[in-house]
Amino acid sequence: MRLSQFHLHTSKEVPAEAEIISHKLMLKAGMIRKLASGLYTWTPLGLRVLRKVERVVREEMDAAGAIEMLMPSVQPRELWEETGRWEKFGGQLLKIQDRKDAWYCYGPTHEEVITDFARQELASYKQLPACFYQIQTKFRDEIRPRFGVMRAREFLMKDAYSFHLDDADLDRQYEVMHEAYNRIFTRLGLEFRAVFADTGAIGGSASHEFHVLAASGEDAIAFSDASGYAANVELAEALAPGSRAAAGADMTRVETPYQRTCEAVAELLGTGLERTVKSIALIGEQGFVLALVRGDHQINEIKLAKLPGLAEYRMATEAEILENLGTEPGFIGPVMPGKPVHVIADRSVAAMADFVVGANEKGFHLAGVNWGRDLPEPDVVADIRNVVAGDPSPDGSGKLQIARGIEVGHIFQLGRTYAKAMDCTVQDANGKAVTPTMGCYGVGVSRIVAAAIEQNHDASGIVWPEAMAPWQAVICIINPKKDPAVVVAAEALHRQLNGMGIEAAMDDRGLRPGAMFADMELIGVPHRIVVSERGIVAGTFEYRHRLAEASENIGLDALLTRVGAAI
Amino acid sequence: MRLSQFHLHTSKEVPAEAEIISHKLMLKAGMIRKLASGLYTWTPLGLRVLRKVERVVREEMDAAGAIEMLMPSVQPRELWEETGRWEKFGGQLLKIQDRKDAWYCYGPTHEEVITDFARQELASYKQLPACFYQIQTKFRDEIRPRFGVMRAREFLMKDAYSFHLDDADLDRQYEVMHEAYNRIFTRLGLEFRAVFADTGAIGGSASHEFHVLAASGEDAIAFSDASGYAANVELAEALAPGSRAAAGADMTRVETPYQRTCEAVAELLGTGLERTVKSIALIGEQGFVLALVRGDHQINEIKLAKLPGLAEYRMATEAEILENLGTEPGFIGPVMPGKPVHVIADRSVAAMADFVVGANEKGFHLAGVNWGRDLPEPDVVADIRNVVAGDPSPDGSGKLQIARGIEVGHIFQLGRTYAKAMDCTVQDANGKAVTPTMGCYGVGVSRIVAAAIEQNHDASGIVWPEAMAPWQAVICIINPKKDPAVVVAAEALHRQLNGMGIEAAMDDRGLRPGAMFADMELIGVPHRIVVSERGIVAGTFEYRHRLAEASENIGLDALLTRVGAAI
């Protein structure tokens, strides 16, 4: 590919609405152009990257035994009414009325269509298992489209759906897809984690999200430094610490006139934050409750709500706190001689000794507090906090690290919900109609491109992993219009690289070297090779890897080895 | 590919709504399934064929120097208002309102979006010419979707758009694309014609439609048997015949009491239909006109309307005929001694001698009529008829044949209409803002699949050209479950074919031979190879080409030669 024949259009400035680095760099590099809110054109440069992702996804789906098909993007309302999602899906569902006033939607997902297909196509258990996929344009009418293709309204997705006679076979397919997803993101050269996910209200039995790790990610992920364990921070279990130490101090009342937070109290007392206890006043089914976590921990509302009597808890009002503890927020705590309160202690709090809590008296805290001596044992001990870095991994192997991630894939055991709602059955070996169980498996193809940039960039621009780069190498020609010999040499090198299976672009646009190199760094080509008159005389090429500190002059054999090794 | 791992689902019956053979066969073969009116799911089998077409189109676009990109399918109303097409496009434009009540459409074509892209991306003449394409899902809200994917509402299209400084460069690109289209349809193995098309109201300067020839085609096409000339029958010029013969008969009044058509009069008189003249009474700008064509020809309304004074002609009423000719339809003619009428004669009529016309008297015709003697020379001589088979080709080379065609491609010199309406300019070499001229080039990717079937089928099913077949060969295994040796032999053959670059499926479903062969004939696989225990013993394979009368038993080398030769 000669760049003079290609449409490459980088720019220095980007609109202020581009908030995150991938959005900025995709605009600067000229990979995407905005058409309207949440609608982006993929330029020739951007499409090259998108197609590389698409190809890897397709190859791994094929290898996993999924069969490609293509469903319409426009779907009839009637199907969505069968599952109740015409109303339930909410505002993201783009509803369309045709010229005959019939209602349709622009498919945000295809569970209804594939289940309709299955109930027509699959009649016998002999046709199961069946796993179909498509790579297709989807639409979700985001209320606030932003971040470029990271949260666009129209986007490219791979969605797969599987049908099984029984749960064991669904488990088997789920593992196959889990492995295929691992291979996809590994082949794309991305650092990622497969994260346990909440199956939520749909009631499937297993679910994993695949996150590309990046500092800008929306989700916090906890993962083991020793095993494959990973989970959303809010879902990861905080294991019980070792047994409680013996009491070593007397309980003392300390004056804390302006100290209403654990941080402020710890600072005043010159003690560690991890020796303080945060008391959170709640109203559950049985009334007033104090939930306790360590001063350096965060309460986890999802875990709290799973405890008996707390499914619909709320925070206590100041009036309720005054009524139950006789003081105001900032000084509350579990020590109430003669009028004990209902206490739920986090596992780590239950293991503390000589700790600091509010004194239930304005301007005072208690230090050197100990369970059983200064207050009763907690009524409930449970995991009610977010995990933090350094916690033991819940799978017993290694310690947790915390990173931020961008969700780019999701696999899900759907169960029989859709098949039941749409009356999809097959005959089993005895001729009896049975409802198949389903899995669904999504990859945000266009989102991966943005996520990869969030993870791989520097001050000069994008740093593509080899597999996603628009070209693996670029041959920069110095003065192509003045010097026919450099063009001839560049073309010869281009043929050699092609012969090795390396996609190379020739930058024959005639730009000054500085501008040409800046463009190639911005668009993130891994290998840059400069062909110049001087190099031809010396018998060398100037080579630089995108991540190298500097370029070096090397001969042809060394060059081919360097570029070829990375492929 | 093992068919036991694939989703192949043929059926014997098809819904009554499937009117044309391609629709029926695509449903029977299980290539498509209807989701809703004009919306079809491409099954795994159908998608394999669709992707083959897509790949050939993509390769030829790349080879022609067009650059692939991807625009959104959803387009904002504002752009369509700039060109006036938001209203003018009509009911096929599917309009969509989003959750914020902004209006969009599901793109039926992308002139507006690409011109918007160009006015942002193309600033200088140095960036021209530029040619972009995409392969993408389009939507046209057909008032009567029918014929399966032949006239579906959602369909797959390749659309390309080019931008040029001047008309000469557009001409050059137009020729390049014309050639690329020729290669596409040639590679796909289709019989086709590139047909001159009317540029219509948009006012472009050149336009060709590409038609796949098929008896069921909607359009009649005239093409030379000696040159590449082809045009829609209604647009092909009927050349002037040789000079007029001398009068050889006297004019006689003949009784034709019940004979109101040329056919009936010719039969009664025992003369050839080509010796009779049909008179058509019209009202043009200047009043009453008689248009004359030979009895065996059809009047061409498009050609008529291009004559001076006839742009908005209409047929005369019976009252107007009575007033001007004194008689009723069925007996009218141009001979009106003493009260001559305005006569427009087709070129072939002007060259006739001794012809038959209505006598302007109920129940009578005139025979032996001659121009100049019995009536004045025609006021106008012009080409006002449809060409017929055997006419000389308008390009002077060969004779015309007539065939029916299905439009699958269209290339068009758009000119500056869109660029002007949307204020798209570039700076020329002198720094002056100039409006680029545009070309557009469409291919109906999904429609090609149906058109190919209309052209290539027999009583047993589809007969795919090699390039479009879902697999080039199928290895049918007899009794795979009973006889491991046949599976081993089939797998060895499969590897050999793969090594030769031949895509082969293995039918290991365990069907009876008759059912298996019927399936493979229905889905149209070109090469069928049967592996059986008997064959293994004899050292032969049973081979049959889809179009062969019978199968034959041949050895491995002969088999590989036969299958390989066709690739």
TrEMBL record, chains A, B:
It is an enzyme of class 6 (ligase). It holds the Pfam family HGTP_anticodon. Signal peptide: none annotated. One of its GO terms (molecular function) is proline-tRNA ligase activity. Its EC number is 6.1.1.15. Keywords: Aminoacyl-tRNA synthetase, ATP-binding, Cytoplasm, Ligase, Nucleotide-binding, Protein biosynthesis. NCBIfam families: PRK09194.1 (NF006625), proS_fam_II (TIGR00409). Consists of three domains: the N-terminal catalytic domain, the editing domain and the C-terminal anticodon-binding domain. This is Proline--tRNA ligase. It comes from Novilysobacter avium. The lineage of its organism: Bacteria, Pseudomonadati, Pseudomonadota, Gammaproteobacteria, Lysobacterales. The gene is proS.
